[in-house]
Amino acid sequence: MGHCGFFLFRMLAGIRPGPALLMSVLQQTYLVGARSLVIIMICGFFVGMVLALQAINALQQFGASEQVSLLVGKSLFRELGPVLTALLFAGRAGTSVAAEIGLMKATSQIDAMQLMAIDPVQRIALPRFLAGFLSLPLLTAMFNAFAILGAVVFAIGVWGMDAGIFWSKLQTGILFGKDFMGGFWKSVVFGGLVSLIAVYFGYYAKPTGEGVGTATTRTVVLSSVMVLIFDFFMTSFLV
Amino acid sequence: MKREYGDSVSWQRENSLHDPIICINNLVFHRDGNVVLDDVSMEIRRGSIVAIMGPSGVGKTTILRLITGQLQPADGSIEVNGELVSAMSHRDLYKFRKGVGVLLQNGALFTDLTVFENVATPLREHTKLSEQDITDRVMEKLDSVGLSGTQELMPHSLSGGMARRVALARAVIMNPEIVLFDEPMTGLDPIAMSTIGRLIRETNDQLGLTSVIVTHNVAQMKKLVDHCYILASAKLIAEGSPQLLTKSSDPSVDQFMNGRVEGPISFKYQQNQGGGAAQSS
Amino acid sequence: MRANYKVELSSGIFLMMGIAALFWLATEATDYGVRIGSDTYSVTAKFTNVGNLKLRAPVKIGGVAVGLVKYIELDPVTFEAVVEIWIDRQFSDIPTDSSASILTSGILGDRYIGLEPGGAMDALSDGDQILLTQSAVILESLISKYLFNSSKETSE
User: Fold this and answer.
1) C1 and chain B: CB distance < 8 Å anywhere?
2) Angstrom distances, CA of residue C99 to CA of A50, A63, A75, B9, C67
């Protein structure tokens, strides 16, 4: 844990902003962010549909089914959006980053870099960390947007709810400060957390095939657990 | 000294052939309680190609890592150009490494970059050259290893020999004084081996480099190098020109140079020494 | 880094999409878009009972939101609820004799304030008070009133 924090410090302390870093962050954003987009959109859409379905089933008993968009929106913005996206991101992008860095180590690319007097922490770990940090809040936004779309499709399209009520409930009930920004900060923290764990385990993987495998497994397990733990504490302190 | 590869010997090489560039004095190194290197001394002369040979697992690669400062010796010293490597600070070490090219086993090309970018990486990182200058230098080096036209390929689409040549181009792109080769020929077919061997000789002589090659490939080294060091059981057992060593009467040297199974070098794990020649091949 | 035009383009598109999604969510799916910003004027109204009227509840004229409830306080002397309403500047011609009533959307829905425009020539301006108000209809008092009335009828 402390070692991991030191690693983060090492990444951020040596940061040299410039076009080279920007370009490699952009490149990693493509690999980490853009390539996770489709899975995030599909999952978001279906999560939105199932939330709307469950909410309508539950709220109908109290004759309050028109509150469905409020329920879907609140649970998405505050919890499900940031948490589910972070878990999907850990599985999709975290593992590939850990495996990639681990493989670079196994094929002594990291070694070669050190011998060229290039700091691999700056060159390899930092752009991937920054890209993940940047991507997750945006992916969370895409997830939420598609989930709301899914809820719209189900509630309005399938169940026949009035579109005006749906949107006005969202617009009056979802608070920008608490719900939206609260979720946004969560996704920022999760982005940093998952990418830090991925680059850390990749960078300190044993340079063997088995070591790379262990690194990816650990990345998924630890980042999922940490996301859920941080989620509880952030919820209890922020809200 | 008879040389098979290349015939141009630069004036720099002739002039300073006797000036040692790497001095290793009484080097001792331990790993996990095992003695990996014990009292090893070498004097590598400027402009020469030197091989460090010995059976697998004898600590040859360890010597390279000690020269680059990745490992710290338990005792003894390594001086490069009169400077003590083990006493260098982190920053000095990075500065020092800019003057040392390294070709690791299998080339260690960056798999996420094209051939061009691989070779250009040290330039981009350490110089402020314009894009045009970088292109010129990279293309020149790629041309010198006979790979012009491959610059846009990704490393995974190269053959083993081509990858090794790209790695060679990358190792010399900064015009270093010293190039270290870690098993440059392992896993290559005989033609690729000879190609690499010739390229090592050519670049060494044209650029006035000093090359240190770690290998167990005796046949190729006989054709290539000026001077050999043979390690066995953590100790330096012989040195001299390859021709001299082939004719050596020392049983250990003879065993290694001529690849005999029977002989004094035990191929058993070091901790329980003294079991005759137990080889697995 | 060079010739990675496609990569740069798609990561650029990804960033744009992500930011667009953030923006869309913030404006369309939260109260950010309907938040009445700095361009408002405030009006107060006193009610004997506001029911479960909440802060930020909409203020509507003819069903269209024109503002929101900013504060709800209790007048310590008259024990009336003082509600401060922020109305968007674009609706600056609301007559002074308009009436405000606390209404409910649906039977169990949220409370909102409905403004019924009057016929005066002067318009409400910042700091004015709406004098004609109608308090919230409280279901319990309605029921008890009905029960009380019916019990009186039977006893007579």
Assistant:
1) yes
2) 44, 31, 38, 105, 15
**Best CA proximity match to B70, nearest among A108, A111, C134, A214:** A111
Burial group, residue C82, by CB count within 10 angstroms (0-12, 13-18, 19+): middle
User: B199: phi > 0 → left, psi -120 to 50 → alpha, else beta; which?
Assistant: alpha
Q: What is the spatial distance between Cα B231 and Cα B41, in angstroms, rounded to a whole number? A: 11
Q: In one letter, which amino acid is A53? A: L
What is the full DSSP assignment across B200-236? HHHHHHHHT-EEEEEE--HHHHHHH-SEEEEEETTEE
Query: Considering only CB atoms, which chain C residues are within 8 Å of B113?
Result: 1
Q: What is the pTM of this model?
A: 0.76
Q: Which helix (H) or strand (E) holds B28?
A: strand B20-31
Total residues belonging to chain C: 156
- Domain residue ranges of chain C, discontinuous segments joined by +: 1-33, 40-138
| Chain C residues closer than 8 Å to B152 by CB | 3
Residue type, position C85, single letter:
I
Q: For residues A131 and A138, what is the distance between their CA atoms, to the nearest angstrom?
A: 11
Residue type (1 letter), B254: D
Q: If you ran DSSP here, which 8-state letter would residue B168 be given?
A: H
**Residues of C whose CB is below 8 A from A133:** none
CB neighbour class for B278 (10 Å; exposed up to 12, middle 13-18, buried from 19): exposed
In the Cβ-directed half-sphere of A210, how many Cα atoms lie within 13 Å?
0
All domains in chain B, ordered by first residue: 11-108+177-190+205-272 (3.40.50.300)
Q: Is C96 exposed, middle or buried, given 0-12, 13-18 or 19+ CB atoms closer than 10 A?
A: middle
How many residue pairs bridge chain B and chain C with CB atoms within 8 Å of each other?
7
Q: Which of B12, B15, B78, B21 minimizes the C-alpha distance to B44?
A: B21
Q: Which residues have a Cβ under 8 Å from the Cβ of B242 and sit 6 or more positions away?
A: B51, B221, B222, B225, B228
Contact between A208 and A71 under an 8 Å Cβ cutoff? The reply is: no
Asked whether B36 and B235 are in contact (CB, 8 A), the reply is no
Query: pLDDT of B8-30, one tens digit each?
Result: 444 444 444 567 888 888 888 88
Domain definitions of chain A by residue range: 24-238
Mutant choice from C31, C59, C64, C104 vs A, greatest count of A C-beta within 10 A: C31
Per-residue pLDDT tens over the stretch B38-82: 888 888 888 888 888 887 777 788 888 888 888 888 888 888 887
* Cβ(C122)–Cβ(C37) below 8 Å: no
Cα separation values, A149 from A156, B13, C29, Å: 10, 73, 11
- Is any Cβ of chain B less than 8 angstroms from the Cβ of C121? no
ipTM, two decimals: 0.78
Would you give per-residue pLDDT tens digits along chain B (281 residues)?
Answer: 444 444 444 444 444 456 788 888 888 888 887 888 888 888 888 888 888 888 777 778 888 888 888 888 888 888 888 788 888 888 888 888 888 888 888 778 888 888 888 888 888 888 888 888 888 888 888 888 888 888 888 888 888 888 888 888 888 888 888 888 888 888 788 888 888 888 888 888 888 888 898 888 888 887 888 888 888 877 888 888 877 887 777 777 777 777 777 777 665 554 444 433 433 33
